[in-house]
Amino acid sequence: MANGWSIFIGLAIIIAMCVAAWVFAPKGENQVLWRSSLILSFVSCYLMWAIAFLAQLNPLIEPRRSDLRPEYIHH
């Protein structure tokens, strides 16, 4: 089940992937481009996932039932 530790587990995986991209980037004149592109894409994907995950973990808008009679609705 999803919980608060998922963010830190995902962060650890992304850090490992970034280190791997740094170490195993192909040698040559485009090594900096490879490293930058891979690390930037990993971090961007993680941020998108983390923001979407945290938004669902603690929603700003609470769902409301529309089939209740007005006298049973508590504000």
Automatic annotation (TrEMBL):
<keyword id="KW-0472">Membrane</keyword>
<keyword id="KW-0406">Ion transport</keyword>
<feature type="transmembrane region" description="Helical">
    <location>
        <begin position="37"/>
        <end position="57"/>
    </location>
</feature>
<protein>
    <submittedName>
        <fullName>Vacuolar ATPase subunit E</fullName>
    </submittedName>
</protein>
<keyword id="KW-0812">Transmembrane</keyword>
<dbReference type="GO" id="GO:0046961">
    <property type="term" value="F:proton-transporting ATPase activity, rotational mechanism"/>
</dbReference>
<dbReference type="GO" id="GO:0007035">
    <property type="term" value="P:vacuolar acidification"/>
</dbReference>
<comment type="similarity">
    <text>Belongs to the V-ATPase e1/e2 subunit family.</text>
</comment>
<feature type="transmembrane region" description="Helical">
    <location>
        <begin position="6"/>
        <end position="25"/>
    </location>
</feature>
<keyword id="KW-1133">Transmembrane helix</keyword>
<dbReference type="GO" id="GO:0000220">
    <property type="term" value="C:vacuolar proton-transporting V-type ATPase, V0 domain"/>
</dbReference>
<dbReference type="InterPro" id="IPR008389">
    <property type="entry name" value="ATPase_V0-cplx_e1/e2_su"/>
</dbReference>
<dbReference type="GO" id="GO:0012505">
    <property type="term" value="C:endomembrane system"/>
</dbReference>
<dbReference type="Pfam" id="PF05493">
    <property type="entry name" value="ATP_synt_H"/>
</dbReference>
<keyword id="KW-0375">Hydrogen ion transport</keyword>
<keyword id="KW-0813">Transport</keyword>
